[in-house]
Amino acid sequence: MSEALYSQARFNDPDAARKHLESIRWPSGPVCPHCGGTERNSLMHGKSHRPGLYFCGDCRDPFTVTVGTVFERSKIGLHKWLHAMQLMCSSKKGVSSHQLHRTLGVTYKTAWFMSHRIREALRSGSLAPFGEGGGSVEVDETFIGRPRSSKAHQAQRDAQA
Ligand SMILES: [Zn+2]
């Protein structure tokens, strides 16, 4: 993988990472993960609010793009998560926790936690909530999420027939 890829903002800056994730997860604007509302979501401003915090005018609950994803409530910067996933998904041989620890500049314990969580999410498909409805999310050219089963495809074809 090229160095240029990893110098991109989303792998180095938490705000850029969040915006990247927002553009993937919400291609047509923010969607409330609590009620599915799309019309009355407003970005909350002010120092007391986390960046990227929205308020849903329908259910009156706040949310960010990470709600319902493996990143939810994580203290680890989102850019580090994206970087770790990119590394893990683009390496055929896999990436060790030691490698993540060195590359991301996080403690070994954190690196271990991240790789464990990402691997588990990939295996179980539970990363899928981060593309609503079990869709996939493109971190780079790598897709993460539950692949649509051939059964589902068949059912869809049948429905269209
Ligand atoms: Zn809502």
What attributes characterize this protein structure?
mainly alpha, 6 helices, binds zinc ion, 161 residues, 3-stranded antiparallel β-sheet, two-stranded antiparallel ribbon
Please sum up the structure shown.
This protein is mainly α and 161 residues long. It has helices at residues 3-6, 14-25, 78-90, 97-104, 108-124, 150-160, and strands at residues 41-43, 54-56, 62-63, 137-138, 143-144.
Which helices and strands, and how do they pair?
Blueprint: H1 3-6, H2 14-25, E1 41-43, E2 54-56, E3 62-63, H3 78-90, H4 97-104, H5 108-124, E4 137-138, E5 143-144, H6 150-160
Antiparallel strand pairs: 1-2, 2-3, 4-5
Helix pairs in contact: 2-3, 3-5, 4-5
This protein binds zinc ion.
Please explain how this structure is put together.
Helices cover 40% and strands 7% of the residues. 25% of the residues are buried. The longest helix is centred in the C-terminal third of the chain and has 17 residues, at 108-124. Helix 3 crosses helix 5 and helix 4 (97-104) crosses helix 5. By secondary structure, the chain is mainly alpha-helical. Strands 1-2-3 form a three-stranded antiparallel beta sheet, with no helix packed on it. A two-stranded antiparallel sheet has the order 4-5. Strand 4 (137-138) and strand 5 form a beta hairpin. The protein has helices at 3-6, 14-25, 78-90, 97-104, 108-124, 150-160; strands spanning 41-43, 54-56, 62-63, 137-138, 143-144. The chain is built from six helices and five strands; from the N terminus they run ααβββαααββα.
